[in-house]
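For reference, the entry.
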Amino acid sequence: MKKVILTAFALVLGVSLAMAQANKSDVNVVGDDNTTTVDQTGQNNSATVEQGDASTPGPAALPHNDNSADIDQMGDDNTAVTDQAGDWNIATQLQDGDRNSAFIQGQTTFGNTATSATQVHTQTQLGDDNLARANAQGGIDGNRGYQLQDGDDNSSILSQNGSNDADLRQVGDDNGIFVRQLGGNDAEIDQNGGGNEASTTSNGAGNSIDVNQDGNGNNVGSAPFDATPGGAANFGITQMGDDNSATVNQKGDANETTVTQLGDGNAYSDFMTGSMNDDNTITSMQDGNDNSTRYELQGSRNAITSSQLGDNNGIFINADGNGLAVPVGGSGSIDDNTIDLMQDGDNNTISGGLGDGSSFNDIDVNQDGTGNKVTSSSQWSQDGVLIGGDNNTMLINQTGENHMSTNRAVGNGNNITVNQNNGL
């Protein structure tokens, strides 16, 4: 009889252990001012929290406001899902372990209309092979999204609609971040590690994006960065390390872009093409060797300042906005732009040109070192800098030895001045 009891106890214990390793928690809350907390410790856990009724989005949705949901999972192979419908809700997810997934879906009572709704969502993942995704739809006071991942092979995806604030941080290797924002947005991305990737897209006026990467093999790219006419947007990128890549796509007026790359073998490309690209400011600085900067420009009254410190660097400008396939001069034109290019080092190259019909542009080139050239390059088959149009001004200052400057002007009233000093 005692043996039978022990066997039965063992069976109960085995079932309990199995349940402990495969727990599942589903919570559905309807109403206001509710708080939901789920804590799970173990493997193969799943937690789902639903607050409010999102089955009928928009003004017809039932108001379920001031709710908070907190899911903490300690272990491996966990999944956390939080779905909120209403205003002024807070969602928090913490996962400590490997191969976790976290999802947050939030929508204000009034959908995408201009209300004072605000949602705050925070996702923290500590471990390997994690994925965090948040999608928030808000009003004029917008959403606040925070994602932190500390580990390897992480992915972070954030989508916001409204007046948003996003802060995404990754510490580790082989991380990836994608941010999509519609409205007046402010996004900051910080990645510390090697092999990171960050991609952003913003649409609307008053956008600001800062990307900071510290490590090797980093990559930053943006889908069309669109500011509405009369609006303003800021894009900042800082990369520290070698073999980094940064690509910025801009469309609109009064945008500001600042790019800083510290290290060797880095590449920066800025595409500002299409209509209504006026009054923009672009500033870039590369400190190291074997770096490259490329500008594809179309628009008027833009200010570009590009600096390179080091050896074997190159700057290329195609200032007609029609791409590299067009012949010299191109069919596009830019007017009233100011372009300042500076290289300090040896064996550097500057090349490119203004499209046919460009006028009243001011280009200043300063090279200090040995063996620097204003001439053709791998991206530009023509010699030096070509000016196509009227009343453009170009000043080239070269200090050092063994310099070369080859330039061509097609049009009327253009002025090209070349000063070469051997530095003695």
Observations:
- The helical segments are 2-21.
- The longest strand covers residues 349-359.
